[in-house]
Amino acid sequence: MQHPDSPKVGPSRFRLFSPILAGATLHERLMACLGALIGIGLTGVISGYLFGQGPHLPLIVAPMGASAVLLFAVPSSPLAQPWSIIGGNTISAMMGIIAGYFIHDPIVAIGVGVSLAIGAMSFTRCLHPPGGAAALTAVLGGPVVASWGFFFPFIPVALNSCILVGLGLLFHRFSKRNYPHVVAKPAENTHQTRDLPSVLRVGFREEDVDAALAALDETFDIDRADLSRLLRQVELQAAVRSHGNISCADIMSRDVIAIGEGTEPDQARHLLLKHNIRTLPVKDREGRLIGTIGLRELSDSIDSIAGAISKPAVADAAGPALSLLPVLTDGRTHAVIIVDDDRRVLGLISQTDLLSAMARLLSNNNAAALVDA
After folding, report:
1. Average pLDDT of the chain?
2. Residue 240 has pLDDT above 60, yes or no
3. Measured between alpha carbons, how far is 13 from 144 in angstroms, rounded to an integer?
């Protein structure tokens, strides 16, 4: 019998048609369709405007359609980054032109062209699947491609690629997507010592990821750093699922010492030292949270706290407490402010609060294990 929380899997004969792209929501797919519509359409329009339309030059080469799939459907893929698209298509087209120029048998030429394209893209770090199609187009393009000769990889292939990437950059910026895909910086030791950051001292290490990839002996379409980040998020979600019954409201401090945005720096320092705390929430005149301040920000001689207020780490009272682990172990954040929908302060969870809750969880787990034994 299938567990109720297990993913539903249909009969084996239908698995071939099941989606295999992780995170492929309906919204993401619709955005990909819209992006491709705009990107390919405008690439053709701009190319036609710049160089005219006619049999002497293809308006847009076929590999751009495949490039658009990667650019708009999987923008985080290493194969969809700007250099991958521009360099992959251009270099591959050049390999196809070279193969067609020196090899007169088209069957041999297409094989050599694609083979050279893969090798060239690999060495220049711009592997891009549509590059194979660009190489084939260069070999089998007929008299139009032949008439352009060694200029074909640049016009229209490189031109099309540059326009498409430029439109992709604009589209992803307006749709608030991370493109070009920038991998989140790994955790750092803010104390400037040789120790690993606290979040990396328990669980798997980077060398474990490398060993796992070597053991599987396969190539995956995901950045190495993204893979490590994904695995750490899986660990966190598993912990939250196991102990999700403890909410932020259960462990937060409710009598929160806070200040207004007009508070004098000396008064803020006095409150931090008097109550032996590291973070003070700062409220506006309506009582809404606008930021936090601590001794680090007040260490310099300042006339007003306005310029020293930091962006606050906030959470919802009903959220799982363990979901705050990444924030409170980043080496910079000492407390998370619990707010309501109007950003009014409901409570505060410090590193000590979360540590106490985790110690209680471990104690309960050990007691349960002894009972079971």
Report:
1. 83
2. yes
3. 45
